[in-house]
Amino acid sequence: MGKTSKILIVEDEAAIRRVLVKILEEESSDYVVDAAENGEEALQKITSEDYDLVISDIKMPKMDGEELLVEAKKVKAETVFVMISGHGDLETAVNTMRLGAFDYISKPPDLNRLLTTVRNALDSGKLVVENTILKKKVNKKYEMIGNSDPINQIKDIIEKVAPTEARVLITGPNGTGKELVAHQIHLQSSRSQNMLVEVNCAAIPSELIESELFGHVKGAFTSAVKDRPGKFEQANHGTIFLDEIGDMSLSAQAKVLRALQENVITRVGADKDLKVDVRVIAATNKDLRKEIEEGRFREDLYHRLAVILIKVPALNDRRDDIPLLTNHFLDQIAKEQGTAPKVFSKEVMELLQQYDWTGNIRELRNVIERLIILGGKEVSKQDVEMFANK
């Protein structure tokens, strides 16, 4: 037996309402069908119960189907609606899809069309739920752990800048979690339904970076055996995160500058421009001002990227967060390894707070993993002194 699906029929004509309930109940034992005779009654039901699908007539007394759709979406945005429209309601039915309805069915409803639409609508609802669960997992993965003043300041900046289209430059030493800041900006933005595409500029050879970013056409160079879109195209309507941008070649910098100025890119070997709508977030562990002075970074690109500057502190500058980070890594690593989390005493936490963390959060995580694997059941001060390699 499959998972039951709760369906609400909203129809003011009793005969049609009964027929629809009967058809759906006979179609599948997995359908639990409820009914309401007007929009007001339906809204009360939707507010107090969770329905996988609402099938609603458009013309009804008290509250029509269009009003019900708008009000229900305010209460439960994920509710899936299919509208039933008479011949004269066709324009309204099309408008309800703009307002968030999944589909509409004309009166009198064709049986096969009705059942196919119901199945498709329920499938779309399951997909929305799955995506919501997945998004929560992603949000958890990129959660910023810490309550120190420097971290709280960054969280405040993210909250203000994320809903805007402003470009952001994230600076800070290696291992401080600059990528977490980029992900949080994307997740809290209006682009979060679309992709965040990450590019590690330091990991791509300078001769390949332009092809990686902007794509290429077949025959552009020896190994270009077919057309290939670049990262900017993949990130269209989303966000591109240019990590370690200080390592990008000057020729690639010029092309990125053009993409930011004109919102167009050109694939390597092509003569046609492509329009792109991409928000750019960049990060570097280098002092870009110094790189500009020494002729390795374009000043005009720096000013394009650094509309908002976020400096991520070294772990040594946020020692208050070490106990929180340690407990977070203890739980995370225990889940990954399928083991029970180990106990770190207050003495051990205080010792960890005293160390010089030159490798920042990345180094702390490695040390915690080492202590989990090699330390005793309750990690001792001696374990830390032996395995932290300080």
UniProtKB/TrEMBL annotation:
It is found in: Cytoplasm. The modification 4-aspartylphosphate is found at D57. GO terms for molecular function: ATP binding; DNA binding. InterPro entries: AAA+_ATPase, AAA_lid_NorR, CheY-like_superfamily, P-loop_NTPase, Sig_transdc_resp-reg_receiver, Sigma_54_int. One of its GO terms (biological process) is phosphorelay signal transduction system. Coiled coil: none annotated. The keyword Cell inner membrane does not apply. Residues 144-373 form the Sigma-54 factor interaction domain. Keywords: Activator, ATP-binding, Cytoplasm, DNA-binding, Nucleotide-binding, Phosphoprotein, Transcription, Transcription regulation, Two-component regulatory system. Pfam families: AAA_lid_14, Response_reg, Sigma54_activat. Its main location: cytoplasm. This is Fis family transcriptional regulator. The lineage of its organism: Bacteria, Pseudomonadati, Bacteroidota, Flavobacteriia, Flavobacteriales.
